[in-house]
Specification:
2 helices, globular, single chain, 5 strands, five-stranded mixed beta sheet
């Protein structure tokens, strides 16, 4: 059975959540059944299928956010929260 495609928000709505320094706070759920990026009033929620093991979930979060933002994955870096569900991601300038 084929997996459902990831549910992604409008890229402009997601870009509006970045602070002036190009950082975005996200709350991650690793090991989820479906991948998604959800915008709520208080947070950006990211669900990835990858387990929280050896950085697999962190890499999956960056890849999913890159897809949602329509940028190369190399433009995103994990600034804080490597071992936490609460992460701070930076979008590097083009």
């Amino acid at each position: 059975m084929a997996r459902a495609p990831a549910q992604l928000p409008d890229s402009e709505a997601l870009r509006a959540r970045f602070d002036p320094a190009g950082r975005l706070a996200v709350k991650v759920t690793p090991g989820a059944r479906e991948e998604s990026v959800t915008l709520t009033d208080e947070a950006v929620l990211v669900k990835v299928r990858a387990p929280a093991d050896r950085g697999a979930a962190n890499a999956a979060v960056l890849a999913l956010l890159a897809r949602a933002l329509d940028v190369a994955p190399s433009r995103l870096t994990l600034e804080r929260g490597g071992a936490s569900r609460h992460k701070l991601v930076r979008l590097l300038p083009a």
